[in-house]
Design goal:
Elements lengths: L3 E5 L20 E2 L2 E2 H11 L4 E6 L4 H6 L4 H9 L3 H9 L6 E6 L6 H6 L2 H4 L4 E4 L3 E4 L6 H12 L2 E7 L9 E5 L8 E9 L10 E9 L2 H7 L11 H9 L4 E5 L3 E4 L3 H13 L5 H12 L1
Parallel strand pairs: 1-4, 1-6, 4-5, 8-12
Antiparallel strand pairs: 2-3, 6-11, 7-13, 8-11, 9-10, 10-12
Helix pairs in contact: 8-9
Length: about 290
Protein backbone atom coordinates (compact mmCIF):
# COMPACT_ATOMS: atom_id res chain seq x y z
CA UNK A 1 0.00 0.00 0.00
CA UNK A 2 1.19 3.51 -0.78
CA UNK A 3 1.10 5.69 2.31
CA UNK A 4 3.79 8.31 1.61
CA UNK A 5 3.65 11.31 -0.71
CA UNK A 6 6.35 13.81 -1.66
CA UNK A 7 5.45 17.48 -2.17
CA UNK A 8 8.27 19.50 -3.78
CA UNK A 9 7.60 22.98 -2.36
CA UNK A 10 11.13 24.46 -2.45
CA UNK A 11 10.67 26.36 -5.73
CA UNK A 12 10.70 30.16 -5.61
CA UNK A 13 7.61 30.59 -7.82
CA UNK A 14 9.06 32.98 -10.38
CA UNK A 15 5.94 32.68 -12.56
CA UNK A 16 3.95 34.24 -9.72
CA UNK A 17 6.15 37.26 -9.01
CA UNK A 18 5.85 39.77 -7.44
CA UNK A 19 3.47 38.04 -4.98
CA UNK A 20 5.86 35.09 -4.51
CA UNK A 21 8.64 37.48 -3.45
CA UNK A 22 7.30 37.30 0.11
CA UNK A 23 4.48 34.72 -0.01
CA UNK A 24 5.18 31.10 -0.95
CA UNK A 25 3.25 30.38 -4.16
CA UNK A 26 1.76 27.34 -2.42
CA UNK A 27 0.19 29.66 0.19
CA UNK A 28 -1.67 31.87 -2.29
CA UNK A 29 -5.38 31.37 -1.58
CA UNK A 30 -7.99 29.94 -3.89
CA UNK A 31 -11.14 31.43 -2.34
CA UNK A 32 -10.48 30.85 1.39
CA UNK A 33 -7.81 28.13 1.43
CA UNK A 34 -4.20 28.10 0.23
CA UNK A 35 -3.38 26.01 -2.82
CA UNK A 36 -1.30 23.58 -0.75
CA UNK A 37 -4.34 22.78 1.41
CA UNK A 38 -6.26 21.48 -1.60
CA UNK A 39 -3.35 19.34 -2.79
CA UNK A 40 -2.58 17.87 0.63
CA UNK A 41 -6.24 16.97 1.13
CA UNK A 42 -6.28 15.32 -2.31
CA UNK A 43 -3.47 13.05 -1.08
CA UNK A 44 -5.14 12.34 2.26
CA UNK A 45 -8.40 11.39 0.53
CA UNK A 46 -6.39 8.92 -1.56
CA UNK A 47 -5.13 7.19 1.59
CA UNK A 48 -1.79 8.94 2.11
CA UNK A 49 -0.71 8.95 5.75
CA UNK A 50 2.66 10.71 5.57
CA UNK A 51 3.22 14.06 3.85
CA UNK A 52 6.84 14.83 2.96
CA UNK A 53 7.52 18.47 2.14
CA UNK A 54 10.74 19.09 0.23
CA UNK A 55 11.13 22.67 1.30
CA UNK A 56 13.21 25.84 1.44
CA UNK A 57 14.16 28.19 4.27
CA UNK A 58 11.57 30.75 3.08
CA UNK A 59 8.67 28.29 3.24
CA UNK A 60 8.09 27.96 7.01
CA UNK A 61 4.54 29.27 6.59
CA UNK A 62 3.57 26.01 4.85
CA UNK A 63 4.54 23.93 7.87
CA UNK A 64 2.97 26.47 10.23
CA UNK A 65 -0.33 26.31 8.34
CA UNK A 66 -0.74 22.59 9.12
CA UNK A 67 0.17 23.05 12.80
CA UNK A 68 -1.89 24.28 15.74
CA UNK A 69 -1.99 28.00 16.48
CA UNK A 70 -2.97 27.88 20.13
CA UNK A 71 -3.19 31.66 20.53
CA UNK A 72 -5.63 31.94 17.62
CA UNK A 73 -7.65 28.93 18.72
CA UNK A 74 -7.91 30.21 22.28
CA UNK A 75 -9.00 33.65 21.10
CA UNK A 76 -11.71 32.18 18.86
CA UNK A 77 -12.95 29.97 21.68
CA UNK A 78 -13.01 32.84 24.20
CA UNK A 79 -14.97 35.01 21.75
CA UNK A 80 -17.37 32.13 21.06
CA UNK A 81 -16.51 32.13 17.36
CA UNK A 82 -16.96 28.40 17.26
CA UNK A 83 -17.67 28.11 13.53
CA UNK A 84 -14.35 29.76 12.73
CA UNK A 85 -12.63 27.63 15.36
CA UNK A 86 -13.97 24.50 13.70
CA UNK A 87 -12.67 25.69 10.31
CA UNK A 88 -9.22 26.33 11.76
CA UNK A 89 -9.09 22.96 13.50
CA UNK A 90 -10.09 21.14 10.31
CA UNK A 91 -6.74 22.12 8.80
CA UNK A 92 -4.97 19.88 11.32
CA UNK A 93 -4.80 16.45 9.71
CA UNK A 94 -5.81 13.61 12.00
CA UNK A 95 -3.71 10.43 11.71
CA UNK A 96 -1.42 12.08 9.14
CA UNK A 97 2.21 12.90 9.86
CA UNK A 98 4.07 15.76 8.20
CA UNK A 99 7.82 15.69 7.63
CA UNK A 100 9.92 18.49 6.15
CA UNK A 101 13.25 18.09 4.36
CA UNK A 102 15.32 21.04 3.15
CA UNK A 103 16.45 21.02 -0.48
CA UNK A 104 19.83 22.68 -0.12
CA UNK A 105 20.25 23.61 -3.78
CA UNK A 106 17.72 24.18 -6.62
CA UNK A 107 18.75 21.20 -8.72
CA UNK A 108 15.39 20.25 -10.21
CA UNK A 109 12.36 18.09 -9.56
CA UNK A 110 14.35 14.86 -9.68
CA UNK A 111 16.74 16.15 -7.04
CA UNK A 112 13.81 17.30 -4.88
CA UNK A 113 12.31 13.81 -4.96
CA UNK A 114 15.71 12.28 -4.19
CA UNK A 115 15.94 14.42 -1.04
CA UNK A 116 13.26 12.16 0.50
CA UNK A 117 15.13 8.90 -0.18
CA UNK A 118 15.95 8.27 3.49
CA UNK A 119 12.27 8.65 4.43
CA UNK A 120 10.84 6.63 1.55
CA UNK A 121 13.15 3.65 2.12
CA UNK A 122 11.97 0.64 0.12
CA UNK A 123 8.35 1.74 -0.19
CA UNK A 124 6.51 2.94 -3.31
CA UNK A 125 5.29 6.51 -3.05
CA UNK A 126 3.35 9.31 -4.72
CA UNK A 127 4.61 12.68 -5.93
CA UNK A 128 2.25 15.65 -6.15
CA UNK A 129 3.30 18.96 -7.67
CA UNK A 130 1.80 21.53 -5.30
CA UNK A 131 0.98 24.24 -7.83
CA UNK A 132 -1.38 21.98 -9.80
CA UNK A 133 -4.93 21.59 -8.51
CA UNK A 134 -6.91 18.53 -9.59
CA UNK A 135 -10.63 19.14 -9.28
CA UNK A 136 -12.59 15.92 -9.12
CA UNK A 137 -15.73 15.10 -11.05
CA UNK A 138 -16.66 12.13 -8.85
CA UNK A 139 -16.42 10.97 -5.25
CA UNK A 140 -13.17 8.99 -5.72
CA UNK A 141 -10.20 11.07 -6.75
CA UNK A 142 -7.80 10.33 -9.58
CA UNK A 143 -4.82 9.82 -7.28
CA UNK A 144 -6.73 7.07 -5.47
CA UNK A 145 -7.39 5.35 -8.81
CA UNK A 146 -3.71 5.60 -9.73
CA UNK A 147 -2.75 4.02 -6.42
CA UNK A 148 -5.28 1.22 -6.94
CA UNK A 149 -3.84 0.57 -10.38
CA UNK A 150 -0.29 0.52 -9.00
CA UNK A 151 -1.30 -1.87 -6.24
CA UNK A 152 -2.79 -4.30 -8.77
CA UNK A 153 -0.19 -3.99 -11.53
CA UNK A 154 2.96 -2.92 -9.61
CA UNK A 155 3.52 -0.54 -12.52
CA UNK A 156 4.50 3.12 -12.15
CA UNK A 157 1.67 5.53 -12.97
CA UNK A 158 1.99 8.97 -14.60
CA UNK A 159 -1.16 11.10 -14.63
CA UNK A 160 -2.04 12.66 -17.98
CA UNK A 161 -4.89 14.69 -19.41
CA UNK A 162 -6.05 15.37 -22.96
CA UNK A 163 -5.27 18.88 -24.20
CA UNK A 164 -6.31 20.56 -27.47
CA UNK A 165 -4.08 19.42 -30.33
CA UNK A 166 -2.85 22.95 -31.06
CA UNK A 167 -1.53 23.30 -27.49
CA UNK A 168 0.58 20.14 -27.28
CA UNK A 169 3.78 22.10 -27.90
CA UNK A 170 3.37 23.69 -24.46
CA UNK A 171 3.55 20.44 -22.49
CA UNK A 172 5.38 17.21 -21.88
CA UNK A 173 3.38 14.71 -23.97
CA UNK A 174 3.34 10.93 -23.55
CA UNK A 175 3.88 8.51 -26.40
CA UNK A 176 1.26 5.74 -26.24
CA UNK A 177 0.07 3.14 -28.72
CA UNK A 178 -3.58 3.75 -27.89
CA UNK A 179 -5.27 6.61 -26.02
CA UNK A 180 -6.93 5.20 -22.87
CA UNK A 181 -10.40 6.09 -21.67
CA UNK A 182 -10.68 8.43 -18.70
CA UNK A 183 -9.88 6.59 -15.48
CA UNK A 184 -7.81 3.95 -17.26
CA UNK A 185 -4.10 3.31 -17.73
CA UNK A 186 -2.05 2.23 -20.72
CA UNK A 187 1.63 1.38 -21.15
CA UNK A 188 3.54 4.37 -22.45
CA UNK A 189 6.54 4.37 -24.73
CA UNK A 190 8.04 7.64 -23.54
CA UNK A 191 7.59 11.33 -22.84
CA UNK A 192 8.34 14.01 -25.42
CA UNK A 193 8.96 17.49 -24.04
CA UNK A 194 7.03 20.22 -25.88
CA UNK A 195 6.83 18.49 -29.27
CA UNK A 196 5.99 20.36 -32.46
CA UNK A 197 2.25 20.23 -33.09
CA UNK A 198 2.65 18.07 -36.20
CA UNK A 199 5.12 15.72 -34.46
CA UNK A 200 3.30 15.11 -31.17
CA UNK A 201 2.85 11.39 -30.40
CA UNK A 202 -0.52 12.05 -28.70
CA UNK A 203 -2.51 14.85 -27.09
CA UNK A 204 -1.97 13.53 -23.55
CA UNK A 205 0.06 15.92 -21.39
CA UNK A 206 1.74 15.09 -18.09
CA UNK A 207 -0.21 16.60 -15.20
CA UNK A 208 2.05 16.55 -12.12
CA UNK A 209 0.92 13.43 -10.26
CA UNK A 210 3.10 10.33 -10.10
CA UNK A 211 2.97 6.96 -8.34
CA UNK A 212 6.42 5.44 -8.39
CA UNK A 213 8.32 2.38 -7.11
CA UNK A 214 11.14 2.83 -4.60
CA UNK A 215 13.73 1.85 -7.21
CA UNK A 216 13.25 5.24 -8.91
CA UNK A 217 15.41 6.65 -6.09
CA UNK A 218 18.38 4.53 -7.18
CA UNK A 219 17.84 5.65 -10.76
CA UNK A 220 17.71 9.30 -9.67
CA UNK A 221 21.06 8.87 -7.94
CA UNK A 222 22.50 7.79 -11.30
CA UNK A 223 20.69 10.44 -13.37
CA UNK A 224 22.99 13.15 -14.73
CA UNK A 225 21.89 16.75 -15.00
CA UNK A 226 19.61 17.27 -17.99
CA UNK A 227 17.43 20.13 -19.21
CA UNK A 228 18.14 23.39 -17.40
CA UNK A 229 21.25 21.82 -15.87
CA UNK A 230 18.93 20.10 -13.38
CA UNK A 231 18.21 16.50 -12.40
CA UNK A 232 14.95 15.73 -14.18
CA UNK A 233 12.40 13.23 -12.87
CA UNK A 234 11.38 12.46 -16.47
CA UNK A 235 14.95 11.29 -17.21
CA UNK A 236 14.77 8.83 -14.31
CA UNK A 237 11.35 7.64 -15.51
CA UNK A 238 12.88 7.04 -18.95
CA UNK A 239 15.57 4.93 -17.28
CA UNK A 240 12.86 3.02 -15.38
CA UNK A 241 11.14 2.24 -18.69
CA UNK A 242 14.22 0.35 -19.81
CA UNK A 243 13.72 -1.99 -16.86
CA UNK A 244 9.93 -2.32 -16.71
CA UNK A 245 6.65 -0.88 -17.95
CA UNK A 246 5.46 2.56 -16.98
CA UNK A 247 1.81 3.45 -17.49
CA UNK A 248 0.03 6.68 -18.35
CA UNK A 249 -3.16 7.13 -16.32
CA UNK A 250 -5.74 9.35 -18.03
CA UNK A 251 -7.46 11.45 -15.41
CA UNK A 252 -11.19 12.02 -14.99
CA UNK A 253 -10.97 15.37 -13.19
CA UNK A 254 -9.89 18.83 -14.29
CA UNK A 255 -6.57 20.56 -13.66
CA UNK A 256 -5.64 24.15 -12.84
CA UNK A 257 -2.06 25.36 -13.07
CA UNK A 258 -1.93 27.69 -10.09
CA UNK A 259 1.74 28.37 -10.71
CA UNK A 260 0.67 30.66 -13.55
CA UNK A 261 -1.39 33.78 -13.01
CA UNK A 262 -4.00 32.91 -15.64
CA UNK A 263 -4.34 29.35 -14.33
CA UNK A 264 -4.74 30.69 -10.81
CA UNK A 265 -7.52 33.07 -11.85
CA UNK A 266 -9.29 30.20 -13.63
CA UNK A 267 -9.09 28.13 -10.44
CA UNK A 268 -10.56 30.97 -8.37
CA UNK A 269 -13.51 31.18 -10.75
CA UNK A 270 -14.24 27.45 -10.74
CA UNK A 271 -13.78 26.90 -7.01
CA UNK A 272 -15.49 30.19 -6.18
CA UNK A 273 -18.79 29.44 -7.91
CA UNK A 274 -18.95 26.05 -6.18
CA UNK A 275 -18.09 27.31 -2.70
CA UNK A 276 -20.87 26.15 -0.32
CA UNK A 277 -21.17 29.56 1.38
CA UNK A 278 -19.83 32.12 -1.08
CA UNK A 279 -20.80 30.46 -4.36
CA UNK A 280 -24.17 32.13 -4.96
CA UNK A 281 -22.84 35.59 -4.10
CA UNK A 282 -19.81 35.03 -6.32
CA UNK A 283 -22.03 34.07 -9.26
CA UNK A 284 -24.00 37.28 -8.78
CA UNK A 285 -20.78 39.28 -8.89
CA UNK A 286 -19.78 37.59 -12.17
CA UNK A 287 -23.17 38.31 -13.70
CA UNK A 288 -22.90 41.96 -12.66
CA UNK A 289 -19.47 42.24 -14.28
CA UNK A 290 -20.71 40.70 -17.51
CA UNK A 291 -23.51 43.26 -17.98
Amino acid sequence: MIKKAIFPVAGLGTRFLPASKSIPKEMVTVVDRPVIDYVVNEAVQAGIEQIIFITHSSKDSIENYFDHNFELETMLENKNKLDLLEEVKKVILANVSIVSVRQSRPLGLGHAVLCAKHIIGNEPFAVLLPDVLVKENSTENDLARMIQRFNSSKTAQIMVEAVPDHLVDQYGVVDVETVPNEGKSVVMRGIVEKPAVDKAPSNLSVVGRYVLPAKIMQLLEQTPKGAGNEIQLTDAIAALQKLENVEAYRMKGQTFDCGSKSGYLKAVLHYGIEHPILGDEFKRMIRELSL
